[in-house]
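Entry:
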Amino acid sequence: MRLFALAEDNSRRELQIEELWPHKGNLVLKFRGVGSISDAETLLRCELQIPRGERAPLESGAAYISDLIGCAVFDGEQKIGIVDDVQFGAGDAPLLVVRSGKSERSGKNERSADDVYEIPYAEAYLKSVDLERKEVHMLLPEGMLQLNAPLTAEEKQQQQESARKSET
């Protein structure tokens, strides 16, 4: 199987899987030409990519990350924003990094023009995924978007005032 390793500096390296085996609930891949642990360490933090035409079909409800990027995310009928990235490592479920790209005003609480939300891509919240229409429909628990919402202008000002007071 042919795949590519995309490094953090955006360099790309073609790899071929020579062998694979299960180990402690994970899958270990042995790449052709990578013969030692120090060789393998050059692949740390690389994103493994499979050409679109060579990807395996997924079971219903599953999606490739590259297919989620650019999808509109809805909570019920309300559009939250567009998936900008997907992050792993914060828990069992990957996080959709969603940009709202709009201002929201509610009294004194004005959000910036490009709010970013991290939303768990968890089966418990997932209602449907329509990749042809580039839409992800979710039913999020009340208050989830406020947990990591960007600070309002008023909140930023309060934070700055608090920091100034603690300096004196």
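The two ends are 62 Å apart (CA to CA).
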